[in-house]
Amino acid sequence: MKACFARTMVLAALLASTSALAQEQALEPVVDAATEINQAARSSQLTVDKIADTTQERMQQYKQINRQISGLEVYVQQLQRQIDFQEQEQLDLNASIDEVSVVERQITPLMLRMIESLETFVELDVPFLADERANRIAGLQDLMDRADVDVSEKFRRVMEAYQIEADYGRTIEAYNGEMDVNGQAQEVEFLRVGRTVFIYKTRNGEHLAVWNQQAREWQELDASYASDVQEALRIARKQLAPDLLMLPIFTDGAQAGE
Q1: Domain residue spans of the chain
Q2: Closest listed residue to residue 172, CA positions, set 145, 152, 153, 191
Q3: What average pLDDT score do residues 234-252 get?
């Protein structure tokens, strides 16, 4: 009876062992599959994490690019305003160029008339600095024929000549020169007070003469004016301070003292 029970126990144990082995063998594919699933899950998670990181990076790049686009849009708008302004300036400049062409055609004859009028004025004026003034007008006439000088420069030179002539009427001047005195060339000192008084005095002081603009001729002065003329010459040369002068002038053909 005991032997039978023992065999039964051994058989049961053997059956249990065989069953456990069979179960273990049956579970191996499941375990392997679970392992593969876990590995695949880890790989998928890594892929998901990588995709998430990449997505975040792309999102930051997208935002940065959007900011750059916004900045470029503002910059392009500013450039467009500048282009519009430059195009308007170009239109205005073209209009100005057309106007300049018209002005040039009009101003050249005007300058020629101004030079001609200035020449006539100098010829009829008190004859001080005759060579200097004549040379200035001749220079303007030559200048007008030059193609390498801008119209603006020509006009500036003409206006400068007019300004110089205008200044003569407000200044006092003394300079040296030569005069034909009694048929003999002599060195003299000229005195000009505006355009009112024009006198010369010989170096030795023997001859004094004043220009009579009405008669357009020189008239001798007596020696009583010598000291006043000498003082006026020194004032004109800035050797004396300005002072009241007694000099002869002509009004309506009559000589008067001043």
Answers
A1: 108-167, 172-257
A2: 191
A3: 80
